[in-house]
Amino acid sequence: MTISYWLDESANHQKNFDVAIIGAGIAGLSAAYWLEKKDSTLKIAVIDKNAVGAGASGRNAGFITCGSAEHFNKLNIQFGLAKATEIWRFSEENREHLKKEIIQDDLSSVDYLNTGSCTVAPSADDWVHYQKIFADMQAAQIDVELVDEQYLKENYGVRNFQGAIQYKHDGVIHPLKLLKKIQSKLKNTTYLLAEEVFSLTHLASEIKITTQRHQIHCKKVFVCLNGFASQLLPELKNFVHPQRGQVIVTEPLPPFVKGPCYLVKHLCYFRQLPTGELLVGGFRNHDIEGENTAHDAATDKIQNALAEFAKSYFENTANVKINYRWSGIMGFTADNQMLIGENPLRPGVHLMAGCSGHGMGLSFNSARVMIENAIDQIPVPAHFDLNRILLK
Ligand SMILES: Cc1cc2nc3c(=O)[nH]c(=O)nc-3n(C[C@H](O)[C@H](O)[C@H](O)COP(=O)(O)OP(=O)(O)OC[C@H]3O[C@@H](n4cnc5c(N)ncnc54)[C@H](O)[C@@H]3O)c2cc1C
């Protein structure tokens, strides 16, 4: 958004903070958490153009997962077994940090359920392929098992699948309740909401952030915008690509889906909410061009595919009513790995972006990595390091 002379209220509204975090999603709030933990005297501002969780963090499916078994396979092909395992373990660590630091014993406050997750095989060929992935995951000592068609029918209510790889330790959550829970732990953080950040300017010894209503001066900035990152930092334009994801939620149904599932063929995922609603998301591959956008909208093409799936892949859902339809914006990188680190073109500006569809399974841990890098100069793992692209 541009700002007119008349609308500019920022001129005489200077605010000073030690640190400013731009973006109030899971990434921004997690960054605030780890910063406060490191130094409880820091004065921190979290700035968002909308509200807490208005981005993908309040619009996702609530899978706290390491990803599908096919995701592991892609990592294995891309990086080899050792690195693929390291990246998988990073998400396991994300889940365990979330439980230890934020959720603690109060699982019900965020509707956290330890369900495991399944990657289902839609055809006999896929099933053969999945046995090989299963063997690789076992070789990596990842806690998986193969489940058959009957098991899927009884525990996930789905039909016409050959079987699945089940990973035992994934979970599901209410994403917005999680954000609120993180907020409840923050003591020194001020929220500047409904304030779009327009620009970052380097002054002699500090950075000026301009929003419509304020000029915020601080020493360090953490940009936590994921799919929106290149709108503020144009140097990321070729590296973080916004992509839309769409979801439907049905009316409440009796329980029949035990946990989150991935049907990779359609980039599709589904789960049943604790209150009975079936959530189905994905099918981006039905309109690759159209979904290549940072614009929030539910479109017929994807919504019809989601509804068709919800009505035809389960035993008792043929006439189910759809109560919610929404979309959210994700950020993808070319190698599907996040970008974390200090922006070499803007000293003092650190960022994390490009969760590539897995931010709930990564961001709490990635924010820790970003903060430890910024404050203690602990190196970012090479596969997440921002410099792998910006210094090239
Ligand atoms: C439909 C859908 C389903 C998904 N399901 C899952 C899932 O089940 N599990 C999983 O791991 N991941 C899932 N994801 C991905 C996950 O939601 C994201 O990776 C994660 O939420 C990104 O968090 P974030 O805080 O980095 O970004 P966001 O949550 O997008 O937050 C960015 C914030 O920046 C603000 N902002 C943007 N521009 C400006 C500006 N100029 N000034 C100030 N503020 C600005 C926005 O308002 C927003 O609040 C899903 C995503 C979608 C869209």
Task: Write a compact overview of the structure shown.
This protein has 392 residues and is of the alpha/beta class. 30% of the residues lie in helices and 25% in strands. The chain has two domains: 14-59 and 176-240 and 335-390, FAD/NAD(P)-binding domain (3-Layer(bba) Sandwich); 77-172 and 241-332, D-Amino Acid Oxidase, Chain A, domain 2, CATH 3.30.9.10.
Describe this structure in words.
This protein has two domains: 14-59 and 176-240 and 335-390, FAD/NAD(P)-binding domain (3-Layer(bba) Sandwich), CATH 3.50.50; 77-172 and 241-332, D-Amino Acid Oxidase, Chain A, domain 2. Helix content is 30%, strand content 25%. It has helices at residues 26-38, 69-79, 81-103, 124-139, 149-156, 175-185, 229-232, 300-312, 363-376, 387-390, and strands at 14-16, 19-22, 44-47, 63-64, 117-121, 144-148, 163-167, 171-172, 189-192, 197-202, 207-211, 215-218, 220-223, 241-252, 261-263, 268-272, 277-281, 322-332, 339-342, 349-353. An eight-stranded mixed sheet has the order 6-7-5-15-16-17-14-18, with helices on both faces. The protein has a six-stranded mixed sheet with strand order 9-3-2-13-20-19, with helices on one face. Helix 2 (69-79) packs across helix 3 (81-103) and helix 3 crosses helix 9 (363-376). The longest helix is centred in the N-terminal third of the chain and has 23 residues, at 81-103. The structure holds flavin-adenine dinucleotide. The site of flavin-adenine dinucleotide has 41 residues, from helix 1, helix 7, strand 14 and strand 18.
